[in-house]
Amino acid sequence: MKRFIDTLKNIWKIKELRNRILFTLGMLLVFRFGSFVVLPGVDPVALQAAIANNDNPNDLLGLINVFTGGAFNNASIMALGIMPYITASIIIQLLGFAVPYFQRLQQKEGESGRKKINQITRLLTVAITLVQGGGYLSYVKGLGAVDPSVPGGIFWISNIIILSTGTVFAMWLGERITDRGIGNGVSLLITVGIIASLPAALVFELTSRMAAGGALVFVLEMAILYAIIMATVLIVTGVRRIPIQFAKRMVGRGNSAMPAAGARDYIPLKVNAAGVMPIIFAQALMFIPGVIAQFGADPATAGSSGVLRALNDFTSPLYNIIYFFIVVVFTYVYTALMVNPQQYAEYLKRQNAFIPGIKPGKATADFIDAITTRITLPGSIFLGIIAILPAFAGGFGVNIAFAAFFGGTSLLILVGVVLDTLQQIESHLLMRRYDGLVKSGRLQGRQSRMQGIGANM
């Protein structure tokens, strides 16, 4: 405990780090304030009553509300949050794999290319927000939460502009945090939205267990949650190190020159190279049955509507079986797009380096590809299990709001963002010759000069 207090004191002593943390907290506070400012023309009492009477509280719209920190159900000016920007970023990233123009911007044109990509991403964000804003207003109107005295045209035009402005403002906040704060701004905005629902869900779970005399069950739940978080940290930070050897070089001049042993390094292949993207893609696909159930289902066909209803409930067995396999498949697909064995082989050749026992060129690329495929299997299965854990937690009696933190996108984002932010704080401490955040080594291990090679990011 004393060491923890000393670390906090050291963080506060560093003026630059202190200012960055305070700036970040201020921007996050502004973002959270916007989550409670209701759109004009919306009756918040009628909206909450309609949501409370929802026949299926486990539908996918509840997951969207979690990511926006409750702003979605509040019909606030930040109802869409930062999600349209995330959607636009994913689209641009996928275009970078398939369209030569975006490939050139990402790989060959350096800083100017990145600026151009950022500009395109922002424009695409606005376009997506305009479309999603119209759909969201239709959803609110369908709940009967719109004041009938407000003219329809004014309601639609003004609120679509306000929703778009809210998303652009959230995007601006994220960029300012990245530039002048600590951590990745956009990721922190999503994390804050997720964490916002944690205290209420935790208190509700505790009170409900205590009322039923299940204090021991609550302790067991917390122990399981801790174990899941630790396992997630291990998978997120886990790498398979492939040793490499740099060629020998001559030391000295003339007859006194002698060969010196080449430097050693390693290629860090991540067990979970795809990160959270397979779960995001899988969730996007699982939204389709919900849309069909809402707009295209025929009430006369009870069987098909029953299937659609099950696919719109993330606690149903059918939903989770399909969801698991989609996550596993997308993990392999996205890893294949992210990790480029040929690029690794070319880099090693340019650096006059090699993998011991493996011939340079195609043999090296095939070896790295085989290792990547092998370690992706446990990574993909783990992602699939993490994706469906909230449904298992809900099945064992954990309330849905708290069960969302037992796995899924929420847990992976929380773990990844927290580790990244703590690593940046630790870097500031180590640069000023203070102790880091852990007793020995670095928070996420030593970095290799090969880190990031072969990833088309």
Radius of gyration: 25 Å
Termini separation: 40 Å
Principal-axes shape call: globular
Assembly status: single chain
Widest beta sheet: strand line-up: 4-1-5
**Unreliable parts:** 297-304, 445-457
Rounded average pLDDT: 80
- Class from helix and strand fractions: mainly alpha
Q: Give the total of domains.
A: 2
Largest sheet: 3 strands, antiparallel
Q: What's the number of extended β-strand segments?
A: 5
- Fraction of residues in helix: 55-70%
**Could you give the order of the helices and strands?**
HHHHHHHHHHHHEEEEHHHHEHHH
CATH homologous superfamily grouping of the largest domain: SecY subunit domain
Family: Belongs to the SecY/SEC61-alpha family.
Membrane topology: Multi-pass membrane protein
InterPro entries: SecY, SecY/SEC61-alpha, SecY_CS, SecY_dom_sf
GO cellular component, one term: plasma membrane
How are the SSEs placed, and which strands pair?
Layout: H1 2-13, H2 15-34, H3 44-52, H4 60-67, H5 71-74, H6 83-98, H7 100-107, H8 110-142, H9 152-180, H10 185-196, H11 198-211, H12 215-237, E1 239-246, E2 249-251, E3 258-260, E4 264-270, H13 277-295, H14 302-311, H15 317-338, H16 341-350, E5 353-354, H17 362-395, H18 400-403, H19 408-431
Helix pairs in contact: 2-9, 2-10, 6-7, 6-8, 7-8, 8-9, 9-10, 10-19, 12-19, 13-14, 13-15, 15-17, 16-17, 17-19
GO biological process, one term: intracellular protein transmembrane transport
Transmembrane segments: 21-39, 82-102, 123-141, 153-173, 185-204, 216-239, 274-297, 317-339, 375-394, 400-422
Pfam families: SecY
